[in-house]
């Protein structure tokens, strides 16, 4: 009786500890910092890119429930075996050694679980490698022990990004060993391609809030991409053991508005960014609409077809040559056989 009471007390203490852990875990999740680690946090860093959102969903909604269910199931089996088949409860053990249905189950169920996980895993993996058309390209080069950033499209030559000294970091109120002297600056809601390489040893470019991590290998150029959804400052660091000062080469990415990014490029001596495909399409559509005759554009047909439809008697016989236009006839240009440009498609 005493032993059973002690077991119940231990179980109650374990349940209370689990409840407290869940409570403090929920509190920590509610206060997670954006773009940097949270002291005492137990969850993944919140994401600000579509890739990061998908990765968090894969972990929290797919992997974590499956892992929890498997752990509780195995724990239940262990408790059942310990209680039901100990020497005191079962002094005469059974002599059988095989059970075909159970062996089939414990072979097929893990396979089905792995196939289910693979569906989400492959989808996320393809999303990481299916980079959309980039709006901005940044080259990130890892050195011992700092980063160099270059913007080839804007003709911004490489600049060095070192760790911010501790005194200066404390004065600015930014995290030491995460803040950098020269951050990478990118515009918000922009597809950014990052070309990653190394100059001496293997480094790794990683920003947890973006959900990206790519090796920087000398003599090889890897690439990754992200699309930040909100303005802010986001920190990362090198994720390879690249030498004695590995812990002192942080990554700071500052996401700003398009206007602020253009001003930053100008301060760096770069050229203004080229018009985006969306801007070019808008300009082309506006010019095409201004030069298109309204009647032909509305019908999407040649002007001669429009004239013939309005006045059937004016249509020439089949196979007859088109009538020559006379200077005194103001409607003569409408009878030309040259088709008018089609109206632009509505966007």
From TrEMBL:
Pfam families: COX2, COX2_TM. Binds a copper A center. Pathway: Nitrogen metabolism; nitrate reduction (denitrification); dinitrogen from nitrate: step 4/4. NCBIfam families: CoxB. In the C-terminal section; belongs to the cytochrome c oxidase subunit 2 family. Belongs to the NosZ family. This is Cytochrome c oxidase subunit 2. The keyword Translocase applies. Residues 268-347 are annotated as: Disordered. Its EC number is 7.1.1.9. The chain crosses the membrane at residues 56-83, 104-128. Homodimer. Residues 277-313, 320-347 have a biased composition (Low complexity). InterPro entries: CcO_II (IPR045187), CcO_II-like_C (IPR002429), CcO_II_C (IPR034210), Copper_CuA (IPR001505), Cupredoxin (IPR008972), Cyt_c_oxidase_su2 (IPR014222), Cyt_c_oxidase_su2_TM_dom (IPR011759), Cyt_c_oxidase_su2_TM_sf (IPR036257). Residues 1-30 form the signal peptide. It catalyses: N2 + 2 Fe(III)-[cytochrome c] + H2O = nitrous oxide + 2 Fe(II)-[cytochrome c] + 2 H(+); 4 Fe(II)-[cytochrome c] + O2 + 8 H(+)(in) = 4 Fe(III)-[cytochrome c] + 2 H2O + 4 H(+)(out). Keywords: Copper, Electron transport, Membrane, Metal-binding, Oxidoreductase, Respiratory chain, Signal, Translocase, Transmembrane, Transmembrane helix, Transport.
């Amino acid at each position: 009786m005493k032993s059973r009471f002690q077991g119940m007390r231990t179980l109650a203490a374990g349940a209370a500890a689990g409840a407290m852990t869940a409570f403090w875990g929920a509190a920590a999740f509610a206060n997670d910092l954006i773009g940097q680690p949270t002291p005492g946090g137990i969850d993944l860093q919140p994401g600000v890119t579509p890739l990061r959102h998908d990765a968090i969903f894969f972990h929290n909604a797919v992997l974590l429930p499956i892992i929890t269910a498997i752990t509780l199931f195995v724990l239940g089996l262990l408790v059942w075996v310990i209680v039901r088949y100990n020497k005191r409860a079962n002094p005469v053990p059974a002599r059988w050694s095989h059970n075909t249905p159970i062996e089939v189950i414990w072979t097929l169920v893990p396979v089905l679980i792995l196939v289910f996980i693979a569906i989400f895993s492959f989808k996320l993996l393809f999303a990481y490698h299916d980079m959309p058309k980039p709006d901005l390209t940044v080259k990130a080069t890892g050195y011992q022990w700092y980063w160099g950033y270059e913007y080839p499209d804007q003709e911004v030559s490489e600049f060095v990004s070192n760790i911010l000294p501790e005194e200066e970091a404390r004065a600015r109120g930014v995290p030491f060993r995460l803040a950098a002297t020269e951050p990478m600056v990118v515009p918000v809601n922009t597809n950014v391609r990052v070309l990653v390489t190394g100059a001496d040893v293997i480094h790794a470019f990683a920003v947890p809030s973006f959900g990206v991590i790519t090796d920087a290998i000398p003599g090889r150029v890897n690439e990754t991409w992200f699309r930040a959804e909100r303005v802010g400052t986001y920190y990362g660091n090198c994720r390879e053991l690249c030498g004695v000062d590995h812990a002192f080469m942080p990554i700071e990415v500052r996401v700003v508005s398009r206007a602020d990014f253009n001003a930053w490029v100008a301060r760096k001596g770069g050229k203004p960014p080229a018009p985006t495909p969306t801007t070019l399409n808008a300009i082309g559509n506006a010019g095409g609409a201004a030069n298109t005759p309204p009647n032909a554009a509305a019908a999407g047909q040649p002007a001669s077809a429009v004239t013939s439809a309005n006045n059937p008697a004016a249509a020439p016989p089949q196979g007859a040559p088109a009538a020559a236009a006379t200077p005194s006839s103001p409607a003569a240009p409408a009878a030309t056989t040259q088709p008018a440009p089609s109206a632009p498609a509505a966007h």
